[in-house]
Write a structure and sequence with these properties.
By secondary structure, the chain is an alpha+beta fold. The chain contains three helices and six strands; from the N terminus they run βαββααβββ. The chain has one domain: Alpha-Beta Plaits. A hairpin with a 5-residue loop joins β2 and β3.
Length: about 110
Amino acid sequence: MFIAQFIFETSNVTEEFLALDNLIAEAAEDNKGFIGKDSWITEDGKRRNSIYYWENQASLREFSIHPKHLEAKKRYQEWYSGFHVVISEVTKSYGDNAFTHITPNSRNK
């Protein structure tokens, strides 16, 4: 499983941005290797993280070249004051099983 985290700070949220963001989310969900999505926002609302989960690296690559995703990459300075991307491979995931999560939840022993 691979994770792509898109951490960003918005500077100019427009209707056009929101529409494109929705199209990108739909493109991700239409990808056969898409597993799910998480997100968080800082208390002050300035920084956000969209976290996408993928079955494999090929699915992530396919998403990364989707036309709507490429359009957003070209135009990011219109909407963001900054961004950071983290791509990682899940090698282990665990918890107390009090709630479900997208990643496998093996009990830590």
